[in-house]
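Students often ask why inverse folding is considered easier than folding. One informal answer: many sequences map to the same fold, so there is more than one right answer. In these notes we will look at a single instance of the problem. The structure comes first.
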């Protein structure tokens, strides 16, 4: 069997992984200990992210004709690839967080929703909260005014139906009225 025939299944596996991907992040993993690499793989797997160490030539062939071809120029030295099909910012977020403790891990570049970014821009993308966090913040913002209204209405009901401010206002006006007449 020729070498090309042996490599074709590997390239096809990468193509299958990147199909439908929302984001891909390339990293330089040199210098990571086995324990660090295992922990990184565990965190990525829990988030539903595919993480593989692949040969650069295989990745170049797999990226040909796709939006991920912009990563070809960053495929130098050992490279690992993190692929997310669900949360576009998850690979960058998890890898950047992990790289704070594991200084040997370096982001090279990535493509998020069809746009290529360098390592610095990926660091900024990593600061974007996950979709679930954003939805919970939105829900909290929407619920806050309703909760406050319910609290005010409850206080009015507990005080016998009339707001406390409305009961105090006539008494204050009566006290001020004689002072201005004198």
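Output (designed amino acids):
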């Amino acid at each position: 069997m020729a070498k090309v025939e042996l490599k074709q299944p590997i390239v096809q596996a990468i193509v299958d992984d990147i199909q439908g991907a929302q984001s891909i992040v390339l990293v330089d993993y040199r210098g990571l200990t086995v324990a660090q690499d295992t922990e990184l793989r565990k965190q990525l797997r829990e988030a539903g992210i595919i993480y593989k160490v692949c040969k650069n030539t295989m990745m170049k062939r797999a990226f040909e004709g796709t939006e991920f071809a912009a990563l070809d120029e960053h495929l130098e030295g050992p490279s690992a690839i993190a692929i997310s099909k669900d949360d576009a910012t998850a690979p960058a977020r998890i890898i950047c967080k992990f790289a704070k403790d594991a200084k040997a891990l370096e982001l090279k570049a990535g493509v998020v929703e069809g746009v290529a970014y360098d390592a610095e821009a990926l660091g900024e993308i990593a600061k974007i909260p996950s979709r679930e966090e954003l939805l919970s913040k939105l829900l909290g913002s929407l619920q806050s005014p309703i909760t406050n209204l319910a609290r005010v209405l409850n206080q009015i009901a507990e005080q016998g139906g009339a707001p406390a401010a409305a009961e105090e206002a006539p008494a204050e006006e009566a006290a001020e009225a004689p002072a201005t007449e004198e």
